[in-house]
Amino acid sequence: MTEDIYKKILMKELIPALGCTEPIAIALAAAKAREVLGGMPDSVVISCSGNIVKNVKGVTVPNSGGMKGITAAAVLGICGGDPGKGLQVLEGITDEDRLEARRLLRDKDVRIVLVEDEENLYLAVRLENGDGSSMVEIKYDHTRFYSIEKDGKKLYECDAVNGASEDTDKSCLSLKSIIEYADSVDLMENWDLVEVLDRQINLNSAIADEGLSRRYGAEVGRTIMESGDPKDPRTRSKARAAAGSDARMGGSSLPVVINSGSGNQGMTVSIPVIEFARSMEVPMDKLYRALIVSNLMAIHQKKYIGKLSAFCGVVSASAAAGSGVGYLMDYDYKTISSIVTNTIATTGGMVCDGAKPSCASKIAMALDNMIMAINMSREGRTFHQGEGLVGSDVEETVRNIGRMARQGMKNTDTEILNIMIEN
Fold this sequence. Notes:
Helix content is 56%, strand content 11%. The protein folds into two domains: 16-165, CATH 3.30.1330; 168-422, no CATH class. With 423 residues, the protein is α+β, with helices and mostly antiparallel strands. Helix 8 packs antiparallel against helix 9 and helix 12 packs antiparallel against helix 13 (333-347). GO terms for molecular function: L-cysteine desulfhydrase activity. Belongs to the UPF0597 family. Residues 224-247 are annotated as: Disordered. Pfam families: SDH_alpha.
């Protein structure tokens, strides 16, 4: 049944992660490689695709004591990571683990290799010592062990021909069917789904609070809240989502529920819906259904874009948040379609130049555009077919943006990476 597929997609995608997902994926692979090796390594080689390098270079690794980058994520995973915890692999890091990680960086051979002609989401960690070697690959998905080796022998290899076939089929997704599912799903019969949505509300709200209460990064969220009306849901949506990113990029140890493999996108799709729901004082049932719309609409767009590219994912996430807010306001399908179209037709050119503090300001800009899109759509104003990448309907527009992001921005992605490496 289609309803079962939608629920399965949500249950698979909406998982908690500690810190930015790319460095955490490196820590996860490294922790697993250490487990397979059975001891501390003398040599560590971390092989990464360009998009992994781009998204790890500028962020502080959580529970690291301020360490940044690929090698920091790997050695922390080796010294204290628990691979059984998935994207919360660094949750239990201790002071001794941090000291051991610094010793490993200082005394052992720890190297990074840039891998070309691979999937955008690809990394491998190879460990060696006098007793043997281990290697763990992650590919296509931040938590998918694509292959595991010990002493050159395969212990595990993904059965899928191209990896993507293991993913939940998302071909059934469309804005219209997503709204129909949100309208019809029996929440009393799907209490496990409600628990996932509650976790998203609680965890993402908590890290937004953290970002507003402490100094992280460039303090984008705090700046927006101080310069706007703190009671206005438009101000609160931008400030709190940005503050959550401030905290994540700044090394906060609080987890966030991700969407499409991204914590920044997870906050962007959820915080505005939560803030507007609280302002409107809607019942929890309505908030859950609106979050279903926003989460699934983000995932729907990303199936065309891909999890990592030169396209800034908070643009698609903000359009999805707009659909959730429109659902809260009881707008019809045509109006919600216009919100999505107006949002992605405006900021669809925002590039991803890696995970770093300015992601918070990009979230704020994308959500400011979402608010404009809502205001336009409420008055029946929308961009029309043939105007840039706008198609004949919302679905064609989503496909056009996805094609531009996945295919058209390949060279952009390469040039961004080259500039970042030079810097």
